[in-house]
Specification:
Length: 289
């Protein structure tokens, strides 16, 4: 298939993983919004907190993913946290290589700040490639001396585009979705001429000091397992608080199947508590100062 056909197919795959399209959680309201030229949606759960925001960076190997493909996942995360979420579309490779996606993520974060959202009321969240992009965004905010968000949530983040982590081989037989060869192929699109060792492309090589608290959820049966374990290890080494949850018998971004998969819903509920706890904690710390 052409890349355009693959993108449509990806949306349909996620949307129709049961017999009929999965309805969003009851009371969810979706509102289209222009984020300085980026297509985006506010996803409001019922009785959403009006001040706090989850800024979601979607996955898809930097070549796939859209509002449609990730609307259900983000709606369920918003419902679990009780906080409205902003889901946006960044430019995709291979048409737009690094740093296009990172530039768009910065645009979305700055748009929130410019429209009155306090950084201590923002939680970043991302799945797969979106998790790697999230870590690149945090590095960039730190280097530019911009205000950091309250916390960050990573769902099976793709952090090693070089492909050297052991789980590429050790988990290959268990992974029902990806192989090491597939990941190597996907890693050829986004970097363009840039070296994949660049920590903004492969955050497994990044310095994570002064990052906000992290919550990392990953399936035990995925070739990207070590992409999460190494990030947790490196973050703890520089005294960044980390909650790491490795889910037995689960695969890549299993939370996308939360409507039919109990473990997916359990993961989102735990993440929701993490988000509520850290946005409230950040607000108290700010008031104390």
């Amino acid at each position: 298939m052409s890349l355009a056909e693959q993108r449509v197919d990806y949306e349909l795959l996620i949307e129709n993983y049961v017999e009929h399209p999965v309805p969003l959680p009851e009371g969810t309201r979706v509102e289209a919004v222009d984020v300085d030229g980026l297509s985006a949606e506010w996803i409001h759960p019922s009785d959403a907190d009006a001040e706090r925001v989850v800024l979601f960076l979607h996955g898809g190997g930097y070549i796939l993913g859209s509002l449609k493909s990730h609307r259900d996942l983000v709606a369920r995360l918003a419902n679990a946290s009780g906080i409205r979420s902003l889901l946006f579309e960044y430019r995709l490779a291979p048409e737009h290589v690094f740093p296009a996606a990172l530039d768009d993520a910065l645009t979305a974060y700055h748009w929130l700040l410019a429209n009155g959202t306090k950084p201590e009321h923002i939680v970043l969240a991302g799945d797969s490639a979106g998790g790697g992009l999230l870590l690149a965004l945090l590095q960039t905010l730190r280097e530019k001396k911009r205000a950091m968000p309250a916390a960050a949530v990573l769902l099976s983040p793709w952090t090693d585009l070089v492909g050297t982590v052991e789980s590429r081989g050790t988990r290959e037989a268990a992974d029902p979705i990806f192989s090491a060869q597939t990941m190597h192929f996907l890693a050829s699109f986004y970097p363009g001429p840039e070296d994949t060792h660049n920590p903004l492309i492969s955050p497994i090589y990044a310095d994570l000091h002064n990052f906000p608290p992290l919550r990392i959820d990953v399936g035990h049966d995925e070739v990207l397992l070590d992409d999460s374990l190494k990030i947790a290890e490196h973050a703890r080494a520089v005294h960044v608080p980390v909650e790491l949850a490795v889910w037995d018998d689960m695969w890549h971004v299993f939370q996308q199947y939360a409507s039919v998969l109990p473990e997916g819903q359990q993961s989102l509920e735990q993440i929701g508590r993490f988000i509520r706890r850290h946005t409230q904690l950040s607000e108290r710390l700010t008031q104390d100062k």
